[in-house]
Structures are given as structure tokens and as C-alpha cells.
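// run 5 | inverse folding | seed 20
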């Protein structure tokens, strides 16, 4: 009897499977090939991919095709992101629908809903302790609401990013509950030990993530007699990625979310996924094999979806998450440019860009393949001063002294500081002190306003606009954290919320100030100045094909340590981006500027010509210029 002809959908699936098979099976062979159930796992994974593709809605399949034909869609200069907690921005998911005009007017084409999957009750690490990956946090709405919102955003050309935590689940997750009841199958989903011997041996080389609130990396549960690996908090149980069943479960979840309209999966805490005795258990080689394999699964069954890999680590450790060596072009499509953020704040405090230029020129390639950065100035998290002793020494600084200075400066205790922040996770043993605070507070708006210092407020506003212009032009997708377009201050009310009071990061997680939005017509306020300035920056970015993320970024060094400069290497010519990190005028020789490839002396950011004075380009305090 003749076989029924394959449908077009079946043929498309087969073609995409063929395309990505070389990226998938060799990784899984290496990771799991010796597992006794490996052949069954391979068969089940293929069934999972086929089932997810068959269930994929028609409009998303059309989007798959569009993005296959336009693989650079996420690198284009019309991509600009906005990051927010749903409840703090709009109350509920359905409330977001009422705010879409605001996002459109700002120029947003990428929306990151901060953790929105169903968390455990009580302290949930800001939503990163998930008890059900297939349900939305009931405080925000339902999965049906989520699908309605993603469809509405898609209709406006906006992509949706959500968090998928890969290292751990909440201890209230169904898998964890079964494990706690003694089910051996589900105990193997986690890293559990019968005695403290192995936890003690692992702990010899592990780093504590939250030493103040959650010391150690293991938790003993006398009621079921196990020591459980808990890297972050006691209620977050680390998954056992050496078990192929965990990989299969996560692929099912990943594709389920993709079929609900997710465009970008922010894979959280990826550095910690693979454990090896005698190491920090961070960024082990198997992590990159897992991430390449997960990416291949998306490309087979939901190719409109890209992966953002959350790894806030040193540059040498971060770049492999965008694909290096055998994983080049096959792993994450996006990763946070933590170093750009750290160096921005460092240069602002010192009024010296030498370290910034050294780090960004030395450790980062000019171009990336099938990948780019998520660039940002602030986010929901604290700032850790990720400056190595070696990099500090290269520009004549002491690493420990520089890191201590930055913490003191941004806490606001250093003499002459313009900032007003709060310490986070002070480690007395190492001297490490991280910083919390809103963009506006750290840039000086709050302190200057309290002092009635009009000139200080003006400088602070210019610092903020310089930061937004930096992330809009450096290369990648600029991400604006909710409220940073309005210069929202610190929110000290977190101290009155019991589940937040211990965590100073809530100081920069305020509720959206819609009253301030209503007053944007009063153009003299810091909120209005930053809003209209940010909106202008994103509009000028959209108008510049040269800022496509596929075009290289090359750091150059003017003879003015207060100025940071880089070239965007477009086929149509160079764009020279200049940023004055001081409150003083800076002057660059016209000959040097022209030697960097500038021919027209036109600032594409302001869309005005640049005049030279006595053979020099004059940069006002906190100037940002995109010269073509």
C-alpha cells in the first residue's frame, strides 16, 4: 500500500531537522551517549519536536518562515527593548494592552516581561523560583491573557521576551514534591545526596551567590533525609542536567512557551547548569553543549524564537555564550553586555575612560556571528564591579582599591559623589560590595534635587541621555529598564514590605509613575527631558542602517582620557561615536577625527553639522555625538 504523501508542514519540519541535526545530535551524543536510556531519549526528543511543530499556530509558522528568510531581524537598528515587571508597569497582563501606545510612541519593538511564570508563594527571588512553567503568575493573569497580549504585541511589530530559569526550580514544583516524597525518578531530576560527604567536597571550590541571605550551596532536609544542591536559595533546587530526562522536560516547556507567542527566551542562570567536582561549577564545557542543543531544538520546531543567555560573568567567560570555537554561531543569539554597563559607571565616577577603552577593546571582538549583545545601563539587578586586577593594572590602577572606590562612590559616601545608591551583599571577607539604585539616583538626579542644585540636575540628565545614546549605538539591542526613560528615583518604600526589606535591589524596582507620563508636556522637568531625549535617540537609531548589529564595533583612543570613542564599521562608511564622560569641555583635533573615517562632519544623533573651532571638535559636558 502506497504511503500517504507528506504534507508541506512535514516537509518543512524534515528540512529544518536536517539543517539543525549537526548542531543537535553530536552534542547530545557527547553529553548522554553512555546513559542506558539514551536511544529511548533520542526517540522521545524527536517525538517532542514533531509534536510541538504540529501544535504550532499558523501565524507563528508564518513568522518562522519570515525570520528564516530574514535571519538578521533581531540585529536591525529598529530593535529597541523595554524591560519591566508586569505588576509594577500595568498591574496585570491585560493592563499591558492599555499601555501599548506608550511603548509604541517611545520606539519600543522588544518587550521583556520580567519573571511572569507561576512562582512559589512568599519569597520567590523576584519570581525566579518557579513552581509551574506552564502557568502565568496568577497575580498577573492567565495563559490565555498572555497569548492575547503576545498577539497584540506581535501585531504592532513587538517581540516578547520572558524568563525561563534553567538551573533550578522552586521546591514546590511538581517534580520536587515527588522527589521529596521519595520518588527515585524525580529525585534524579535534582542533585541530592544521602550524606554530607559529597556536598562538603563540592563546597571546597564553590562560590556563595547570596552569602548574606542564603549562605552555602546545599540544604539538608531531615524529613526525607537528603542534602539538596541549592546554589541560590533554599527554595531553589538545582536541576540535574546530567539526566537526559531533564533536557527533554525543558525542551517540552521551551516549545510550549514558544507556541504561546514568546519570541525571545531569556535563559536564566545558565552558567551553573553543569557540576564538576573541584571547580566553581560555573561555565563548564558541557553548559555550552547543552545550550547549543537547546538552540538547535528551537531552530527545528520554532525557528522564530531566539535565545538570550543570562551569564553575568567576566568577558572571557561571557563570550562563549554567544558561540566560540565549535559553538560559533550556534549557541546564544543574545547575551548581556555586562562589561559595557560596568565600564560606563566606572568612567562616570573617575571621569577617565582609559579602563573602559582597554576592557572593551581587549576582550571583545569587533563582530559576532549570528549573535549580538543586549546592551543596558541599568536592570532589575545590582551592579557588581566586574573589573579584574589584571585589567586595572593595565591602566595603572589597583583592582581592589578601584572596586572599593566605585562602591563608595555609588553608595554616595565618597566625598564629592553625585550618586545616591544602596549597598547589596557586602562580603566582609573579600571586601566585595555591590550596589543597588535607579539610573537617575546613581547618575545624580536625586541628590542634586534634594540639594536644590539646578546645575547638578542638568548634569545628571545629560549623564542619563549619554548612557542611552551609548547603548543605542554600541552594537546590539539597547534595553531600557522601566522608569529609566522618566528618570524615576529610588523607591525607599521597599523597606516597609517584609518580603522585600532584606533585599536592597527593590530600591530600583519602583512602580511606574503614570502621573509623570501625564505631565510630559511640562518639558522642563528631569522626567520630560530624559523621556523626550530618549525617544529622540531611539528614533535617530532607527534611521541609521549603519547601526545594524552585524556591523563591527571598533574602540579607538583619542588623546583625551575623558572621551570614549568607537567606530561603527558599516559598508557605507564609518560612524564615529564620541562620548564625553566629564562635566568639562573636551577638544579633539579635527585631523584625528577625520583620520577615523569621518568625512562629512555631520552628527547623525542631533542631525546637525558639526563645526570645528581652531582645528578641533569641541565636546560639551556629557556630549554624545555620532559623526558620519
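// decoded
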Amino acid at each position: 500500500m502506497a504511503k500517504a504523501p507528506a504534507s508541506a508542514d512535514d516537509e518543512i519540519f524534515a528540512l529544518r531537522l536536517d539543517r539543525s541535526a549537526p548542531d543537535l545530535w553530536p552534542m547530545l551524543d557527547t553529553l548522554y551517549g553512555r546513559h542506558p536510556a539514551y536511544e529511548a531519549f533520542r526517540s522521545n526528543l524527536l517525538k517532542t519536536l514533531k509534536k510541538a511543530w504540529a501544535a504550532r499556530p499558523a501565524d507563528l509558522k508564518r513568522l518562522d518562515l519570515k525570520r528564516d528568510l530574514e535571519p538578521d531581524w533581531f540585529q536591525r537598528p529598529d530593535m529597541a527593548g523595554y524591560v519591566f515587571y508586569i505588576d509594577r508597569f500595568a498591574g496585570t497582563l491585560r493592563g499591558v494592552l492599555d499601555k501599548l501606545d506608550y511603548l509604541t510612541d517611545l520606539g519600543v519593538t522588544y518587550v521583556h516581561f520580567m519573571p511572569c511564570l507561576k512562582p512559589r508563594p512568599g519569597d520567590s527571588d523576584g519570581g525566579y523560583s518557579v513552581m509551574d512553567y506552564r502557568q502565568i503568575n496568577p497575580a498577573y493573569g492567565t495563559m490565555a491573557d498572555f497569548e492575547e497580549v503576545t498577539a497584540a504585541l506581535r501585531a504592532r511589530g513587538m517581540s516578547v521576551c520572558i524568563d525561563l530559569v534553567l538551573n533550578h526550580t522552586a521546591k514546590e514544583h511538581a517534580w520536587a514534591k515527588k522527589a521529596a516524597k521519595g520518588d527515585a525518578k524525580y529525585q534524579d531530576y535534582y542533585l541530592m545526596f544521602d550524606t554530607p560527604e559529597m556536598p562538603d567536597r563540592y563546597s571546597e571550590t564553590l562560590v556563595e551567590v547570596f552569602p548574606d541571605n542564603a549562605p552555602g550551596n546545599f540544604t539538608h532536609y531531615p524529613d526525607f533525609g537528603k542534602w539538596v544542591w541549592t546554589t541560590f536559595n533554599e527554595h531553589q533546587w538545582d536541576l540535574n542536567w546530567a539526566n537526559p530526562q531533564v533536557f527533554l522536560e525543558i525542551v517540552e516547556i521551551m516549545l510550549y512557551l514558544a507556541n504561546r507567542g514568546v519570541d525571545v527566551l531569556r535563559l536564566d542562570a545558565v552558567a551553573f547548569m553543569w557540576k564538576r567536582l573541584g571547580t566553581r561549577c560555573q561555565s563548564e564545557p558541557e553548559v555550552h553543549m547543552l545550550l547549543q542543543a537547546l538552540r538547535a531544538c528551537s531552530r527545528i520546531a520554532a525557528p522564530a524564537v531566539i535565545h538570550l543567555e543570562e551569564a553575568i560573568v567576566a568577558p572571557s567567560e561571557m563570550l562563549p555564550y554567544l558561540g566560540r570555537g565549535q559553538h560559533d554561531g550556534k549557541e546564544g543569539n543574545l547575551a548581556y553586555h555586562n562589561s559595557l554597563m560596568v565600564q560606563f559607571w566606572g568612567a562616570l565616577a573617575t571621569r577617565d575612560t582609559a579602563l573602559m577603552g582597554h576592557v572593551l577593546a581587549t576582550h571583545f571582538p569587533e563582530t559576532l556571528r549570528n549573535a549580538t549583545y543586549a546592551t543596558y545601563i541599568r536592570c532589575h539587578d545590582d551592579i557588581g564591579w566586574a573589573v579584574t586586577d589584571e585589567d586595572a593594572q593595565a591602566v595603572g590602577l589597583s583592582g581592589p582599591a578601584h572596586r572599593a572606590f566605585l562602591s563608595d562612590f555609588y553608595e554616595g559616601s565618597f566625598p564629592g559623589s553625585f550618586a545616591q545608591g544602596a549597598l547589596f551583599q557586602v562580603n566582609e571577607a573579600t571586601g566585595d560590595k555591590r550596589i543597588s539604585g535607579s539610573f537617575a539616583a546613581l547618575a545624580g538626579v536625586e541628590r542634586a534635587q534634594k540639594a536644590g542644585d539646578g546645575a547638578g540636575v542638568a548634569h545628571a540628565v545629560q549623564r542619563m541621555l549619554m548612557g542611552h545614546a551609548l547603548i543605542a549605538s554600541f552594537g546590539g539591542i539597547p534595553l531600557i529598564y522601566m522608569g529609566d526613560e522618566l528618570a524615576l528615583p529610588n523607591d525607599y518604600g521597599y523597606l516597609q514590605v517584609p518580603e522585600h526589606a532584606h533585599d536592597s535591589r527593590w530600591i530600583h524596582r519602583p512602580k511606574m509613575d503614570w502621573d509623570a507620563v501625564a505631565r510630559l508636556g511640562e518639558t522642563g522637568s528631569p522626567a520630560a527631558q530624559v523621556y523626550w531625549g530618549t525617544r529622540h535617540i531611539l528614533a535617530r537609531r532607527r534611521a541609521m542602517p549603519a547601526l545594524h548589529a552585524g556591523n563591527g564595533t571598533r574602540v579607538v583612543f583619542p588623546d583625551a582620557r575623558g572621551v570614549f570613542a568607537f567606530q561603527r564599521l558599516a559598508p557605507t562608511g564609518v560612524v564615529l561615536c564620541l562620548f564625553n564622560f566629564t562635566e568639562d569641555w573636551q577638544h579633539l583635533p579635527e585631523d584625528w577625527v577625520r583620520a577615523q573615517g569621518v568625512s562629512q562632519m555631520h552628527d547623525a544623533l542631533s542631525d546637525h553639522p558639526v563645526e570645528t573651532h581652531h582645528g578641533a571638535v569641541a565636546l560639551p559636558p556629557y556630549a554624545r555625538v555620532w559623526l558620519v
